[in-house]
Design brief:
The protein is mainly beta and 355 residues long. The chain has a domain of 126 residues. The protein is built from no helices and 31 strands. It is globular.
Length: 355
């Protein structure tokens, strides 16, 4: 961990964990932090210090995000009500979602608010702020069936990227970004699988990589995974994985992760802060011959070649232990390589490190 430098420590009252949207937004300097169990703070980073610009009320049922420039959105998932704050003009708008959706994630990008969720009738909707219009975004018939959900949203320069969840097979859905109207569906891509009953929690995106945090389950145990895709073709990837021997003892798990340059930064509930370097060789697939038997061939063995992605054991990650403390959130300060660790003990502490 000698490439990480601790810069600043800030302490607040004890907080419960809620959801922040973070997603390769450009040009903004603002970011959100958990302050206590009823508040989040809007901040900038000035003169090597976190500068609080305002606070907003939340609850245990809140999910929230910022466009990093002028707006904060807080969604009460119990009531499907949104409070949209323009913190540059102090204007506040309250919205009721006019769709049957069970929200799981939100994203603010320029003049749009996007909401992804579990099945009611809709799982991905858009609100255009300037025109005050709602839209239900197209979900291809090939991927829409019972149990599907959109669990996270990220953007790149021209696309909204929706991360599919829960039921196999899994997909990434792509929509063409614009600033004036309903987003048009572009295409979808099939995701690699890390095992049975895979549940995706979170996506991270940079100019080079797309990362997904997920878990898999089987009869007596579970595992946590961070899968790194080389680009949006989704053909080259590797996975970092950690297993738990029993579902009843799932302390060795990933709370959060970030991709900064060619490094993966990991918040592990048991092991603390992890740092892992991405290498080109990890994207080279493993060739594996599989033997099958078919009555068509009189049950003679048939060998076929399959390609599997590289799986890297969590033991190869360089960890710094935070004794009796749990790093529950990683927040990258916009336009820097500095990361804020949100650490839970008897209170909430924010520690700034530099990669």
């Amino acid at each position: 961990m000698n490439s990480i430098k601790v810069l600043t420590v800030m302490t607040f009252a004890l907080s419960i964990m809620t959801v922040l949207g973070q997603n390769r937004l450009k040009g903004g300097n603002y970011f959100l932090l958990l302050k206590d169990k009823e508040k989040i703070s809007l901040n900038t980073y000035e003169n090597n210090k976190i500068k609080e610009k305002g606070t907003f009320t939340i609850s245990e049922k809140s999910i929230f995000t910022t466009d990093q420039k002028e707006r904060v959105a807080i969604l009460d998932t119990a009531k499907n009500l949104i409070t949209l704050y323009d913190f540059q003009t102090s204007k506040e708008i309250r919205l009721s979602i006019p769709y049957d959706i069970k929200p799981k994630c939100i994203l603010l990008n320029d003049d749009d608010l996007f909401i992804g969720g579990k099945m009611g009738k809709e799982i991905l909707v858009q609100y255009h702020i300037q025109s005050e219009k709602w839209y239900e975004l197209e979900i291809p018939t090939q991927v829409i069936f019972g149990g599907k959900a959109i669990d996270d949203l990220v953007v790149n320069d021209s696309l909204l990227i929706a991360i599919d969840n829960v039921v196999m097979p899994k997909y990434i859905l792509f929509y063409r970004l614009n600033t004036t109207e309903k987003l048009a569906f572009s295409h979808f891509k099939l995701l690699k699988s890390n095992g049975t009953w895979e549940h995706i929690f979170q996506g991270r995106i940079t100019s080079d990589y797309l990362g997904l945090r997920s878990s898999t389950f089987w009869s007596v145990g579970s595992a946590q995974h961070i899968t790194i895709y080389k680009n949006l073709d989704l053909t080259e990837c590797f996975a970092i994985s950690v297993s738990n021997g029993s579902r009843k003892n799932e302390t060795n798990e990933y709370n959060d992760f970030l991709i900064v340059g060619n490094k993966v930064v990991i918040a592990n509930k048991e092991n603390g802060l992890g740092l892992f370097e991405i290498k080109k060789s990890y994207f080279e697939p493993i060739k594996n011959y599989v033997t099958s038997y078919s009555p068509i061939n009189n049950f003679k063995p048939i060998k076929t070649l399959e390609f599997r992605h590289v799986v890297i054991n969590d033991s190869k990650i360089s960890y710094e232990k935070y004794k009796n403390k749990n790093i529950i959130k990683l927040t990258q300060i916009p336009n820097t390589k500095k990361i804020i660790l949100t650490i839970e003990n008897n209170n909430i502490r924010h520690e700034i490190i530099e990669i």
